[in-house]
Amino acid sequence: MVGQANEKTLKRAQWESFSFELEAPGLVRVTNDSYDEDGHSYTVNVETDVPVACECKAFEYQDGPCKHMVAVAIREPVLMAAQAVPIPDGGQAKNTCQNGQTGCCGPHGDELPCFDCYQDRR
């Protein structure tokens, strides 16, 4: 996807100041902080680790990805967050170690970690 962007788009995606907000799995709100005025915030759709669409006019009218899509694609933590799958129980992850013990291996567990988790530094 990044390889399909023109040189100007690649440079702008790298040099301009962006902020990112995860709206939902697969949806990232990209705001261009390089501008003083409002209205430079767009949602980028991410599917299977690739930005595939943006609601900005540049994506609608030009060939290839826009700078918002490239900005998401070149920032690995943002791209990874966009792919995160929500936890079905409302976000309360259970710290389960490889031995099947629950609660022993998280940073706030009531017990010391089991040996396997300690050795793996979990």
UniProtKB/TrEMBL annotation:
Pfam families: SWIM. Keywords: Metal-binding, Plasmid, Zinc, Zinc-finger. Residues 42-77 form the SWIM-type domain. InterPro entries: Znf_SWIM. GO terms for molecular function: zinc ion binding. This is SWIM zinc finger domain protein. It comes from Halalkalicoccus jeotgali (strain DSM 18796 / CECT 7217 / JCM 14584 / KCTC 4019 / B3).
